[in-house]
Amino acid sequence: MLKLDQLSKRFGGIAAVERVSFLIPKKKIAALIGPNGAGKTTIFNLVSGLERPSKGRIEFLGQDITDQPPHKIAALGLSRTFQNLQIFGELSVLENILTGFHLKYRCRFLKAGLWLPAVGREEIIMKRKAHEILEFVNLLDKKDLSASNLPYGDQRLLEIGRAMAMAPKLLLLDEPAAGLNNHETRLLGTKIKELNQLGITIFIVEHDMKLVMRISDEIIVLNHGQKIAQGIPKSIRDDPHVVSAYLGTKHNAAV
Ligand code: ATP
């Protein structure tokens, strides 16, 4: 599904990512973990086209996407969420989901202005799909509320719902559990697993190690921009390099 080959990114004198290579197979849940500043979000930004690598290559579904802009990568089937929520607070919950469809459906402004029959058909399909997504993320009964009035945990699910509207093959989730309580995090983990069972490959950056260990098939560990380990949860938990760089820190002492 995704292949990073010797990927590097420098910001001035800082090597945010240094010669990182890994594969994420189709239909898996892969997690990227590591201490603050390890380069995790930079890798997400490189993969989704928000940043250009200094060196190296990225393939998505066998295609070279290294220098592709974000909208082209998204159109190939890659959606993402952000560490800092990016929902439209003044729009309703339903409208937020509908904004996610614009890449999937070809409805153009001009056509919409002329109100051609195709537009009406597309709108009906989009609304039906939006309702299905809202049911999936448990927000159907809140569809007419302003997104800014949702509790924080629901806003996180709404962002995932909007990413689902783009019918992704690969979904990047950047710290989806940040700010959630234990109950909300458990629900989130279940939803991520259900999404994966629908055939969507998941790539997640997350500091909540309980969640990561529960849902991941594969974990990649970064430290100071370099990959220091990759493997199944048990091997990562027992890896002395990972324990000393990250898991053994106060932050994750419980794992
Ligand atoms: P966190 O867990 O805190 O989100 P992270 O692993 O996602 O951290 P990054 O945000 O990718 O880490 O940052 C990696 C390094 O690159 C850090 O030293 C950061 O300060 C630096 N960095 C990231 N983006 C930029 C930028 N746009 N300009 C300059 N330096 C940057």
Mean pLDDT: 90
- Provide the helix percentage: 25-40%
Structural class: alpha/beta
Identify the strand order in the major beta sheet: 6-7-8-3-9-10
Low-confidence stretches: none
Question: Strand count, sense and closure of the main sheet?
Answer: 6 strands, mixed
Number of strands: 10
The fraction of residues assigned to DSSP E strands is 15-25%
Termini separation: 29 Å
General form: globular
Written as H for each helix and E for each strand, in order along the chain, the element string is EEEHEEHEHHHHEHEHEEHH
Summed up, the helix count is 10
Describe the structure.
The mean pLDDT is 90. The protein has a six-stranded mixed beta sheet with strand order 6-7-8-3-9-10, with helices on both faces. It has a four-stranded antiparallel beta sheet with strand order 2-1-4-5, with helices on one face. It contains ten helices and ten strands. With 255 residues, it is an alpha/beta fold. A hairpin with a 2-residue loop joins strand 1 (2-11) and strand 2. The longest helix is centred in the middle third of the chain and has 20 residues, at 117-136. Helix 3 runs parallel beside helix 6 (152-165) and helix 5 (117-136) crosses helix 6 (152-165).
Give the SSE map.
Layout: E1 2-11, E2 14-24, E3 29-33, H1 40-47, E4 55-60, E5 63-64, H2 70-76, E6 78-80, H3 93-99, H4 109-114, H5 117-136, H6 152-165, E7 170-174, H7 182-197, E8 201-205, H8 209-215, E9 218-223, E10 226-231, H9 233-237, H10 240-247
Parallel strand pairs: 3-8, 3-9, 6-7, 7-8
Antiparallel strand pairs: 1-2, 1-4, 4-5, 9-10
Helix pairs in contact: 3-6, 5-6
The structure holds adenosine-5'-triphosphate (ATP).
